[in-house]
């Protein structure tokens, strides 16, 4: 993000302020010789393995721990070798002086764009004079086993995604309902407004004949109720199946084989104000 | 993240074109405070208009307008004041701020929910599905990013530019309905880290002086500002020292817990500070600038009563001590200004809300939101119930807007500015009502 100077003026009894969105370029020497930092930086896991599937964003956790006697604020800065993309590059936090120590962590998503060459890419985390490097080994996408879920890790697409969820949440292979609170799954971002849609697109056309949807339970009140399943035909979407009044968690829909580069569920009504999916799975003929 | 520090020159002039510069100086913008500078200028003339600007390198800020407070002995013949709160950026355009800015008030009170911290829906503005706008803020970098985004709004910038601000936070500068060290099921030690992060970003981004600079998770927000003999502002903090909401929060029947005299919404030291200050005030108008309604708010039709656990209703012993203390000490012209409800609620504050003949000891103007709740309507079903069930409530409105006030030694006039729509840009702002309080008579009147 572009640097912003926030200038606040307090004048003659009353405070006034102005935000100044212009970058400044007058460097002033930073104060040196401060007390030695007692903040300990760590990043985990020590190494990460990933494939170039776009919706299997792996993540690392950066932890700052104050081992000193005084509370401090500290920053960690992240940098990833190209073409890896990080969800964020800064972690700033208050660190209390607690006994026992109180580590404070932030999770960073690591995305491997499609087309990334297999190899090792570094994520470098620095905090003050400390540095930690997490190597990310990118492996070729393994060929899918016969009968495998064709949506797993592929590029998800959606009409919108609520700020507490991630676009990739319903193609991450996690259909455990108890993980909903940990933000797996997909929830649209337009309360009370329908339709919403969620799907997956592939770089090349696939042959598919079955879609399995896992919606949030209890399905009657939290799940998707009325919806169409659609395949992409060029620029438009064609409905291949319709469901009205669903109250099940797991909805299996089979249909004559289709060859398409994208598939989606178009939700006309949910059991609540939102459309919610735990997992979106697509299969082809055996 | 830029690790360098920068020097920032500031200037104060009596004219908008800076021909008559009366003060200038240099401050340092450091990364530790997200390159914010807080300049507390002394020695300006009281009750005077000034302009200020900043320069760093070859970059010059737009000029801001301010007006100094009058001298302690001075009696202003008139003071204009605006108060506003609750600006969920994704729920609408800040049209109300544009109108507020155009009026160039003597002072603006912002009563909290300047940002919203939670992960939210896609909003009504272009680009509102950007993750940086919709994700939850927990860490300091995330709170800073949220302020940086809100501050890109040109109408909000204009409001800051138009007048000096006196700001207090409410809950969403930290997290929904936090209370002291409690926030939902979050362990206290984790919550206090978040609170420290939120306080730091708030101080960096608001026009607050050094005494308000937080020390970790502690921040001295409540404070008193004197406007000569005409008005004195007691700015309150009903979040940091309150007991946890009773009965699991929400809207419930009042009971022993809500009336428990050992519970407080201000904390006992602040309650004492407030009443002691009001007792010694020599100002005509004694203004309480704070977060949420003091008045009784029965929200259900019929004989049953259900009140919000988060407002002073959930801490009715605090309310009784405040209103009783005002009466016992003979404190005159107490006007409570608050927000948080996303609706306008104007009430006579009586010693006993259940007795229609009870003595009215103060007046309350709860202002609606800038945008939170989207367009709204003149009077919704909830507003009708409030008016029916709460005879001490004199006016209600459920549109978005702010309140523009004129204060003289004889009367307080509140003008309720409302937007026809906020979910589209360039809505129309008009005056929905004018209500007055006569000096010496606490009851609200039509102006």
TrEMBL record, chain A:
What is the residue range of the signal peptide feature?
1-21
Q: Which superkingdom does the taxonomy of this entry point to?
A: Bacteria
Give the matching InterPro entries. Galactose-bd-like_sf
* Regions that span the bilayer: none
What keywords tag this UniProt record?
A: Signal
In its UniProt entry, what is this protein called?
Answer: F5/8 type C domain-containing protein
